[in-house]
Specification:
CATH architecture of one domain: 2-Layer Sandwich
Number of helices: 18
Mean pLDDT: 80
């Protein structure tokens, strides 16, 4: 015959293990006490500082590689490069400006055109040239605008190239303004913006600038909606390098900014987009003004080979212009030089927030001084190193956040031995208490175990039988109609939810017994929790023919654990369904009253005797049915309800009378 374990055998083993572990802890700290704890701690700090420096260098490498990925030395498609560079700039906060230069050191992007050394003479046909000269003579010498306009219209007819057409349109726009034909002028300038945005006059001045200025100066409430897309289009072409920038661009952008401030737009997002374009264009112009000479000299000298090169062929070159915070990523190809201007401080800050110190025992302050900082500080808790190979002139300085850490650590350890001894005695005492409590609980629960197992077995078997029956019917395809299959699946889901609620109660009770319950209170809409619980019980309410009457105030907000209170409401509703007897009406109310939030679940069922009302919240206790039929259950639902409500500093009250029903009231006290 097998021998049964004595109930306290398990806790006896725990008791012995507690003593052994406590003794082991004391031994461990005794061994540590032989060594010098200060030296060991300093060594650990230096190791972590070195690791942190390595992590930063790796992260720096990864960020730079990510920025330059996708570019190569043999890339010569300028449009593709511009698009890729603009996307890269938008994706990374530490990228200031992208740029492309040709082999002569001239900007391709931003497309900045300076003043040409010689005037550009367009190739014009004889007819066009003659008509245009006659138009200019009529406009400027004879002051006959109508006559000049006729000649300029003839020029438009004689145009055979885009360069001819844009000259004629610009002249027509100018003369139409003089004649007061603003609509005609706007039409000409609109055509220039849409079709000839990349062309410039003989002095290198973009025709689109004449058109852009006209649109800004002749906008009114009637034409605002038609002018706005043209202004936006022109700004986009300037930003995308289709329309050249020059020394007049800044003045034009000032006009555009004032124009945006003076008018109200029906589409705020379009206005925001144009403001962003203006900011980026200003940045492009300032970039060219500040760094243009430095970049041109760099291309002409061709001496960047001494700098570190990443896997995409980009060299890291520190800028000598600006405020010493910037650096270039430069890729000098056969046809073009591609690059990015980065903000060094912003790059470093981006890396610092990526969790570099995760997993370290101590906390550190990371700084980037301009010069070298010695590691021989008095407290010997600082570490400096160069950021090679990326920034040879830049140092990273790592210092422990709490300089008094070692002294504090030693003081704390001096208390550990006494505390560990006290803990050992407490562990021994606690072990005895646990053994005695466990024996008493085993005796108390032994009488209830048999009934509980029987009830749980029945509660599990009933829904499992239904689930299996309907599942087998579906597997064997006994139900052909889709509606029938849906009905069977719905029954399976609802029976599964019933099982889930019962198992949740058992698990919750188990946590209560072991004092392992966890509550996560948050601001919760109690009205929605109650409605959800009612909705999830609809299947059983409809199946058993219940009429549920609700009086729920909207948006009652309290600080509770939403999962626990969903379980509270589900258990109260389930209890009302079980004990309603022949009555099929349940009342559910939720309201505020004098600083309290009250939930009431009332039935017209069998009721509870006065002398037994205090016992219904005990574990495993179940009320006699009084002819209400075979009522099943585990006897844990109301126990879980009471525990959860009281854990939220609330209370639950019961009003009941035999034959008239019961009303459970959950009262939560709101903080004033």
């Amino acid at each position: 015959m097998s021998r049964r374990f004595i109930p306290f055998t398990r806790l006896s083993i725990v008791f012995i293990l507690a003593i052994v572990l406590s003794g082991g802890i004391l031994t461990y700290f005794s061994i540590n006490n032989i060594s010098n704890p200060k030296e060991l701690t300093e060594k650990r700090i230096i190791e972590e500082q070195q690791l942190l420096s390595q992590r930063f260098s790796i992260a720096l490498h990864d960020h730079i590689e990510k920025v330059t990925a996708g570019f190569s030395d043999d890339t010569d498609q300028v449009e593709v490069l511009i698009g890729s560079l603009m996307n890269t700039t938008a994706d990374h906060d530490f990228t200031i400006q992208a740029f492309i230069l040709n082999n002569n050191g001239e900007f391709v992007f931003p497309n900045f055109a300076g003043i040409p050394e010689n005037s550009l003479k367009p190739i014009l046909s004889n007819r066009f040239k003659t008509a245009f000269e006659q138009g200019e003579e009529a406009e400027f010498a004879e002051k006959d605008s109508e006559k000049a306009k006729k000649y300029y219209l003839s020029c438009l007819d004689f145009s055979s190239r885009d360069s001819d057409s844009v000259i004629a349109l610009n002249a027509l726009g100018r003369i139409s303004v003089k004649l007061g034909h603003i609509e005609d002028a706007t039409a000409c300038y609109s055509s220039i913006i849409l079709n000839y945005f990349s062309l410039s006059d003989r002095n290198g001045f973009p025709f689109a600038y004449y058109a852009f200025s006209h649109l800004l100066n002749h906008t009114n409430a009637e034409n605002l909606e038609s002018v706005t897309p043209l202004v936006e289009f022109s700004l986009e072409k300037m930003e995308g390098a289709s329309t050249p920038l020059n020394f007049y661009t800044e003045e034009l952008l000032i006009l555009a900014t004032a124009w945006l401030e003076n008018y109200s737009f029906s589409n705020p997002e379009r206005k925001s987009h144009m403001n962003r374009l203006i900011r980026r264009l200003n940045q492009q112009v300032q970039f060219v003004n500040l760094y243009g000479n430095e970049l041109s000299g760099m291309i002409n000298e061709r001496k960047p080979d001494t700098h570190y090169t990443d896997s995409s062929g980009f060299r890291i070159i520190n800028s000598v212009s600006g405020n010493n915070r910037e650096l270039f990523l430069v890729n000098i190809g056969d046809n073009n030089t591609t690059g990015l201007l980065l903000d060094r401080n912003s790059l470093f800050d981006t890396i610092l927030i990526t969790g570099l110190q995760d997993g370290l025992e101590f906390e550190y302050i990371i700084e980037f001084p301009s010069g070298y900082t010695s590691n021989t500080a008095a407290n010997n808790l600082s570490y400096s190193s160069q950021l090679n190979p990326y920034f040879p002139d830049q140092f990273i300085h790592i210092n422990i956040d709490n300089e008094n850490l070692i002294n504090d650590l030693i003081k704390r350890r001096s208390w550990i031995y006494g505390i560990a001894s006290v803990l050992l005695l407490l562990a021994m005492f606690l072990g005895v208490v646990l053994i005695l409590r466990d024996i008493a609980r085993e005796k108390r629960l032994a009488a209830l175990r048999s009934d509980f197992i029987s009830n749980v077995t029945h509660e599990l078997k009933t829904p499992l039988t239904s689930i299996r029956m309907y599942a087998e019917s579906l597997i064997m395809k006994r139900v052909k109609a889709e509606s029938g299959q849906t009905k069977y699946l719905s029954i399976i889901v609802n029976e599964s939810e019933r099982l889930s609620r019962m198992i949740s109660n058992i698990l919750e009770f188990s946590k209560m017994e072991k004092a392992r319950q966890e509550y996560h209170p948050v601001e919760t809409n109690l009205s929605e929790i109650l409605r959800t619980a009612i909705s999830d019980m609809n299947y059983w309410l409809e199946k058993k023919g219940f009429n549920i009457v609700t009086e729920i105030e909207d948006d009652i907000i309290v600080t509770v654990d939403p999962e626990k209170f969903y379980q509270v409401y589900s258990n109260l509703l389930s209890n009302a369904i079980k004990y309603s007897g022949d009555s099929k009406k349940i009342y559910v109310r939720l309201y505020k009253n004098s600083g309290s939030v009250i939930t009431e679940v009332e039935d017209e069922g069998i009721g509870i005797e006065k002398d037994k009302q205090t016992r219904i919240f005990e574990a495993f206790y179940r009320v006699e049915n009084h002819g209400a039929g075979n009522i099943t259950g585990t006897g844990l639902g109301l126990t879980v309800v009471k525990e959860s409500v009281e854990a939220h500093q609330g209370k639950i009250e019961l009003e009941s009378e035999i034959g008239k029903g019961s009303k459970f009231s959950v009262i939560l006290f709101q903080k004033q």
